[in-house]
Amino acid sequence: MGQWQTMIQTDSISKTYSTHLFEKKIPALNDISLHVNKGEVFGIIGPNGAGKSTLIKILLGFIQSDSGSVTINGLAPSDTRSRSNIGYLPESPCLYPQLTLIDHLRFSSRVTGDPFDKSWCKNLLDKVDLAHVSRKPLAKYSKGMVQRAALAYALFHNPDILILDEPMSGLDPVGRHLVVQLIKEYHQKGHTILFCSHILSDVENICDKVGLMNHGSLVKMLTPDAVSPGQQPPEQYSIPLERQFFETLAEQEQHTP
Amino acid sequence: MKSILAVALLSYKEGIRQKLLYSTVLFAILMCFGAVLVSGLFLRDISKIILDFCLTAVNIGGLLVPFFLAIHLLSRDIERKSIVTILAQPLARHSYIIGKFLGISYLTATVMAILTVTTFISVWMGIALYGEKFFTSFALLPVLSSILLSWLGILVLNAMVVLWCTVTTSSFLATLLTFFTYIIGHSIDDVVRFLSIENSKMIIALPVRKVIEFCQYIFPNLSAFDFKNQAAHGLSIPASEFLFVTVYAIAYICIILSLAILFFRKRDIA
User: Fold this and answer.
1) What Cα–Cα distance (Å) separates residue B63 from each residue in A66, A213, B68?
2) How far apart are CA B28 and CA A252, in angstroms?
3) Residue A99 at interface with chain B, using a CB cutoff of 8 Å
4) Strand A209-214 and strand A217-222: pairing?
């Protein structure tokens, strides 16, 4: 792949946290190197505390890595321009409950400097099935509706890269189907997606490439060629992802002193 | 600049829809109208009493913004991680800080503007009830100047709220620090003046004296913005004093916001 096609690149990034001033630092990320090419859907799976969310926060510039380098479409995360290419859906979206979804979308267009495109907005709201409540305060939304509202907010500026941290949490089966369809549609348009989830069937269904994280390290990369020769994603992997997930973790536990 | 204004507008909209704001304004309006009735009991200085009450209500109304709304809008933003919603956009951290400050300042201005109108309605009601002879000392310009300077003082406090919210991790601590800033800011001038009296028989330990002197240079002198008494008596505020206080407020706000930006730039949004 040519260098120009790499949308997300991390080189040996590490991060440690300390909850208190005099407490021992806890490693959150350990020497993570990965690259996501343009148009790929890259899945990150791993148990709780594996470092998935920390990795995402570093990509977005919310926290700084202790060592290593990160580039988003050639730009450092600290460069605000890097985020004009990113749409982010956090694990627990915290939109402003007093404001409406339209208020949020107008804010997004003001920040990016794009004019507020009403037809694009209507189209997007129809897709997430929130057009009828777009002028109601988010405090009146259900959890699933907030999740879909946050997805609309992430997609509104039509970013090249979409970072989704547990996008299906709190969604009912209908909402889940809707979001999966939206992600697939977005992928078909050639956009890049970084997808973090615990729901392995969704990862299997959506992702081209899967990285397994555990204890802050990227322990295994599951590429379609390596996992299932002759089959192409997003079809089923020949060895179910769930089996690989547990086998790899068990293997790693055995090697851990 | 666009992104700063976008954050300011978002914060303003969020603040204006808080129920707390309505109860605050309602309380202050009741205080203003109550002043008209209370002043009638005195049968003299009616204008001064009404203005004293009303200008205090304007100030209290304005102060409730930094103490309750501003901390709610800023600290909770970080606690509840709503900040992620904003910072996931192509927005620099300094734009967030300045935008939040502006949003809170617009809110303060809105509350104080509503209460200023209420003040003038109260004066008008006072004239209608007790007659014009009790309002000969009333002058519009000192009242407006006093309110404007009071607003600037609250903006200084707003800047301090922004700073405390960027350096602390809890809204409780930010509220506590803002409260101390307010108390120190209003009393430090008098304390320093008292210490400088040569004939004072009070013996003060050198370290205490040094701490007080240190506080004088660090904390804002909020009593410098209090011109309620002059306004109530219809005395105009000298232009030089008005200008000096305005420049002091602007300079102080700029320094505090720069510090807040400096801290916030390094802060992990975890």
Assistant:
1) 41, 50, 9
2) 65
3) yes
4) antiparallel
How much is the pTM? 0.84
Question: Is A92 near chain B, with CB under 8 Å?
Answer: yes
Determine, for residues B269 and A57 on separate chains, whether the beta-carbon distance falls below 8 Å.
Answer: yes
Distance CA(A34)–CA(A223), nearest Å, equals 13
Rounded-to-integer distance, Cα A90 and Cα A166, Å: 7
Q: How confident is the model at residue A226 (pLDDT cuts 50, 70, 90)?
A: very low
**B26-41 pLDDT per residue, tens:** 877 787 788 888 887 7
| pLDDT(B261) > 90 | yes
Q: Percent helix, strand, coil in chain B (nearest 5)?
A: 80, 0, 20
In this structure, what token pair is assigned to residue B91? 């927005």
Of residues A103, A108, A137, nearest to B89 (C-beta): A108
- Percent of chain B residues past pLDDT 90, beyond the cut: 23
Separation CA B34–CA B18 (nearest Å): 25
Q: Is A55 near chain B, with CB under 8 Å?
A: no
A136-147: average pLDDT: 87
> Is the confidence metric ipTM above 0.85 for this complex?
no
The answer to whether B13 contacts A103, with C-beta atoms less than 8 Å apart, is yes
Task: Say whether A111 and B3 touch across the interface (CB within 8 A).
Answer: yes
Place of tokens 């509706």: A145
CB contact under 8 A, B17 and A104: no
